[in-house]
Amino acid sequence: MKNFIQETGLWVEVRTNSDEFLFKNLPALFLDRDGTIVEEVLYLHKPEEMKLHLDAAQTIIKANAMGIPVIIVTNQSGIGRGYYGWPDFCAVQDAMLEELSSLGARIDAVFACPYHNDGQGPHIYKNHPDRKPNPGMLLKAENLMSINLPKSWIVGDRSTDLGAGHAAKCEGGVHLKTGHGSEPGESEDAEKYKSESFNVQHCQSIGELPDVIPFFKL
Length: 218
What we know:
CATH topology: Rossmann fold
Radius of gyration: 16 Å
Strand content: 5-15%
Oligomer: single chain
CATH architecture: 3-Layer(aba) Sandwich
CATH class: Alpha Beta
Distance between the termini: 39 Å
Order of helices and strands: EHEHEHHEHEHEHEH
Helix content: 25-40%
Low-confidence stretches: none
Strand order of the largest sheet: 1-4-3-2-5-6-7
Largest sheet: 7 strands, mixed
């Protein structure tokens, strides 16, 4: 297994040389994984159960073509709860990245947080700063990749995804109806983060992002 687990217990994998792709001062597209890039499977840990959402690769390719770094930020409480381990996470991730790559789409970095209030052993942590809706993973990406966080956007099927973007002082977030996004209260909870400094949009799926995120229109 590739090992990108830091001493803090966070998975931090920067896959693209930031100097080569000139990420400095560019906004990032932060994407949740489950229910956003891939179809929601409860505690997904088997590669054969991984299925890309329609148009996920196409949207990522558009960001790639503009030089916008695409960064996955995912809570992985299944690891914290002991339902599966990092090797299982890695197997699913490799399958996803391989399929995206075969379609011409590039993921520039992956951050994953295993901590949860109901975790086991070292993964028990109430309100961990890296677990969404906290901004830790986004702030680490800013530090490592020199991105323009105030112009960045976050996308996910949970209101907590937008909460992380709001806490990190991103420009905005998009709540998707895929995955958990159609559950009662999710859209309303996501909308609560809307303010003069944080733009909230709602889409049916990841394929609609170029219609609502400003940097796709530059």
